[in-house]
Each structure stands twice: as C-alpha cells, then as structure tokens.
Write a structure and sequence with these properties.
The chain is an alpha/beta fold and about 290 residues long. The protein contains 11 helices and 10 strands. The chain has helices at about 25-30, 40-50, 65-80, 100-105, 120-130, 145-155, 170-180, 205-215, 235-250, 255-265, 270-280, and strands spanning about 5-10, 35, 55-60, 80-85, 110-115, 135-140, 160-165, 185-190, 200-205, 220-225. Strand 8 and strand 9 (about 200-205) form a beta hairpin. The mean pLDDT is about 95.
Length: about 290
C-alpha cells in the first residue's frame, strides 16, 4: 500500500509578545507528528505559555545540524507525517533555518504550507516611516569590515527601501559603514526589541544614528534604510558648485547648501563638499 506524503508546515512564532502568536499555532503544535524547533528549550517555554503539549516527536533543527537532519525530516514527510517547523522568533527560513528543508520537500513534491505569523522584517518596515511600496530584505551583513563595505556598495544605488538584521554589538560599525557608503544624510530607522517591553524605534540620518549607537545598544535589532534617491541628471562638479553658490546667495549657510544640493543631485554630501573645496582651491568664485 502506497502512503501519501505528509505536509510540511512553517509556523511563525512571536518576535516578542506571546499574545501575538497566531491562533493556529497552538493547534499545529498539539497535532503535529514531528515538531522541528530551532531551540527545544525555547519551544518548551512557548508551549507552556500557550498551554499546549505536543503529542508528536520533538527534534532540534538549527544551523549546526540543518544539513544532516533535513534528510531525516524528508523521510518522515514521505512516510505521511505532518512536520511542523518553528524557529526562535518570526517566520522559518527568513534568516533562520528552513530553506534547506523547504527546498528538499519541494523537490520531492511534498506539500508545504504555512501558519502566517509575526515578522520582524515587515513590522520594522511598517514602523520605520520610510517608503514601503518597494523594499528588499538583505539579512545580516558580513562581520568583517571589508566584506561589509563591499556588500553595501553593491546596493548603494538601490532605489528600494533596504531592511537588515544586525547584532547589537555590531550596530555602530554597521551604521558607520552605511554612512560612508550611502552618505550620512540617508534616512534610516533602527528598530529595537520589537513588540517587547522596551521596544524602541530610533529614526534619523544614518550618520546621526551611528553616533547614537556608539554609546551601546542592546536587544534584537532590525535596521531599515531609505533607498537611493533618483538621479534626475548627472551633474558635473562645476554645476554642483554653482548650485551651492545660488543657495548661499539666497542666505543659506554653506553646510546646509551643500547638504541640500547633495539631495537634489542624488549624490553623497562628500562629493558636493569636495567640489566646493576644489573650486575654492582653484580660486573659482563661489
């Protein structure tokens, strides 16, 4: 007798407030044949808070054993099991274990479904105050400074809003690197401890946020960064200088004029500043 394949269920879990747990989560936890959890201890706390007791087998499924355990879970699915995958917080496979298992299940034509739940990516994006019509999720940046700068340069001209995860102890370095690559005036929002007791949304130019983060930040961090401004036209150095001059003649201070022209031209503030300095050195009238 041929056994029909089971179902893989990806379940979103609270990113902070346990009350945000999807109504179906308790039902799936209680009824699954196998529950694969990123951290079985955190799963135990979650089930206790929800008042449920998994009837099925509970196994760990984390970065360290993901490759080795995937075939075992696929075998269970092929045998008709309902396998529930949960991570520590948010949706599985979004910078968490899950992708390998989904890909393997799809390859075997096993049904994959989801219990939609909380997402730090979408929550931060909605709270950021930045454009949300188009965005891209970039996950975690590399730890090494050179690799981090290279990755940021790849998206320096990206028009869509950017969303990143970051560890609190690396946040200041990451924001400083963003200020260097994107320009210190690029708008951003640091979303800390979303839905938790000490939730905080810090908004402002990325350069200012880097200074703020240098004092030390704790908690789970999601960073949302404004996309690159549209470049209506390529302006040469002489035109940048001319526009600064016009603004100064209208009463603006040079610092503010440079910042405004940089935004107008869609270029880093440093580029306008360097053009002004070069013009002064060449004794071109401002």
């Amino acid at each position: 007798m041929t056994v029909a394949p089971g179902t893989l269920v990806l379940a979103g879990t609270p990113i902070g407030d346990i009350a945000d747990a999807p109504p179906r989560l308790a039902e799936e936890l209680a009824g699954a044949d196998v529950v694969a959890a990123e951290d079985t201890r955190r799963l135990r706390r979650l089930t206790q808070a929800l008042g449920v007791q998994p009837k099925g087998r509970v196994v760990s499924y984390f970065e360290g054993n993901e490759a080795a355990r995937t075939p075992e879970l696929v075998e269970a699915l092929m045998g008709g099991a309902r396998v529930l995958l949960v991570t520590d917080a948010g949706m599985p496979s979004v910078s968490d274990p899950g992708y390998r298992l989904v890909a393997a299940a799809v390859e075997k034509d096993i049904k994959v479904t989801a219990v939609p739940g909380p997402s730090a990516v979408l929550t931060a994006l909605a709270l950021s105050g930045l454009p949300v019509d188009r965005f891209c999720f970039e996950g975690f940046l590399p730890r090494k400074a050179g690799e981090r700068l290279s990755r940021l340069r790849e998206v320096a001209d990206e028009r869509r809003t950017l969303v990143y995860f970051e560890a609190p102890h690396r946040l200041d370095d990451t924001l400083a690197a963003m200020a260097e690559v994107f320009g210190a005036e690029r708008r951003a929002a640091v979303c800390r401890e979303l839905t938790k007791t000490y939730e905080e949304i810090k908004r402002g130019p990325v350069g200012e946020l880097a200074e703020w983060a240098a004092e030390g930040v704790r908690g789970e961090i999601t960073v949302v960064v404004e996309g690159a401004p549209e470049k209506a036209e390529e302006l040469d150095a002489d035109e940048l200088v001319r526009r600064v001059r016009v603004r100064e003649e209208a009463g603006e201070r040079r610092k503010e004029a440079i910042a405004a022209v940089a935004v107008e031209a869609g270029v880093p503030k440093r580029e306008v500043f360097d053009a002004v300095v070069a013009a002064k050195t060449a004794q071109k009238p401002l």
